[in-house]
Amino acid sequence: MVGVSFDHPAANKLFRTNEGFQYPLWSDTKRELALAYGAAKTPSQPAAKRVTVILDPSGTWALVYPNVDATLFDHVTHVLEDMAAIAAAN
Amino acid sequence: MLVAGALAACAGDGASGGAGGGDAADSALAGSNDAGAPGPDVPGDGGPAVFADGSLDGGASGDTDGATTHVDVAGDVADGLPWADAVAADVSGRTHGGDTGDATSADAAPKTWVIPPGLHGQPAPEPLPLPVVTAVVDTSNQPVDTAVLLGQWTVMWFYPAASTFG
């Protein structure tokens, strides 16, 4: 798992420390990843859209959640359910 | 709780290394899905090889008996995505992974994963190779190589800003 935003690395480092994240946070300041995965429409977009993607072991994306609603608390459950379903189907 | 925090709690400790360049936690990609985000084994695990044309193991072509998806993702759902036009197309019957495959040469052709129907997420409209980035850095301001994501299933989540809700 990896989190991506447009923040300065120092801001992400503090974020990760404060929240106890055990996975990397990446700073995509040029929106390279965000543009590829739909979290940004332009290289100057000030903040990333809340988007989650699941990539398979070859790095190819398998699923996308293009409109994550942060006010709902079921997104994590949905992602895990989907990954379990993919595992079961394969 | 922040969604990010919940994801972290579900993701295992990510203690193994591999990202390089950053601090210890930055190098926590390998095995990051081990605990809470179960995924299929890497290619060559003997699972069904479903090719892009819907055939199984290079045999008879056709549907994969429910192991395909048909998600109506046209319209506003896809708004803003770079592949919105492609998403608007009917994606029924698609499977995920390489273009075609030879079941006897797993090393040569990437495994095609069956994406079952009824998922919360939308199947990717078209294969998108892992982007090669030049300016992405970790929290130690070290360049990131997206190749560290290879070999395991990865959840990549984009968030508007550090320390924001959700």
What does this structure look like?
The complex is a heterodimer of chains A (90) and B (166). Chain A is of the alpha+beta class and 90 residues long. Helices cover 36% and strands 19% of the residues of chain A. Chain A has 3 helices and 4 strands. Chain A has helices at 9-19, 32-37, 75-89; strands at 2-5, 25-27, 51-55, 61-65. In chain A, the strands form 2 sheets. In chain A, strands 1-2 form a two-stranded parallel sheet. A two-stranded antiparallel ribbon of chain A has the order 3-4. The radius of gyration of chain A is 14 Å and the shape is globular. Chain B has helices at 3-10, 84-88, and strands at 122-123, 154-158. Chain B has 2 helices and 2 strands. Helices cover 8% and strands 4% of the residues of chain B. With 166 residues, chain B is mostly loops. The interface between A and B is large, with 77 and 91 residues.
